[in-house]
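step: validate -> pass
step: tokenize input -> pass
step: predict -> running
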Amino acid sequence: MSESRMSDKAVLSCRNLGKSYEEGPESVQVLSGLQLELHAGERVAIVGSSGSGKSTLLNLLGGLDTPSSGSVWLAGEELSALGERARGLLRNRALGFVYQFHHLLPEFTALENVCMPLLIGRVAIPEARERATSLLTRVGLGHRLSHKPAELSGGERQRVAIARALVNRPGLVMLDEPTGNLDQHTAHGIQELMLELSTSSNTAFLVVTHDQNLARQMDRVLRLEEGRLVPL
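step: predict -> pass
step: emit ->
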């Protein structure tokens, strides 16, 4: 089976992925020969020590960085074969991001923040507001639509970030330490919300986390060590 046909069956796949950086006269290999495939609705956690390359991997998988070798396929498209504009459009359509720090735009309300990916994708304003309102209501923030990030708690901000990641109905959401900045009670609520939303939307979730409780709730747990992913 060809690489492209294999990848077409997956929301995300990478083959022989490698990344190295030049530091003076030396080349530092961060990732080497890495393989990964995710399917619709699948939930996968990636764990590993600090400095093991987890953030580098997410940047490559999300098309924010270019691999030194190998290929990444998102929604059936090879990222390295696309121009910068086409990659941006594909990310907007097929991929959502949630970070440890919510990265909400402080001057906009919760509703406006969640509308943003839809407006970038040229969805009409009335439809964007309707879809964003519906999703914010689903995550328990229907009463906070007009509040700006400074007026929301940490958990509420992260719920807005999750709604923003899902509002375009992407096939995959990548989450980088999504509960790392929250207290234990709030983190537990965010975990339950993520699991419920991934199931109801059939969205694949790829989670980088140090939270062992969150990792155990995924379908698969992979450890990144010596530049490769090892099943646990």
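step: describe -> The CA atoms of residues 40 and 141 lie 27 Å apart.
step: cleanup -> pass
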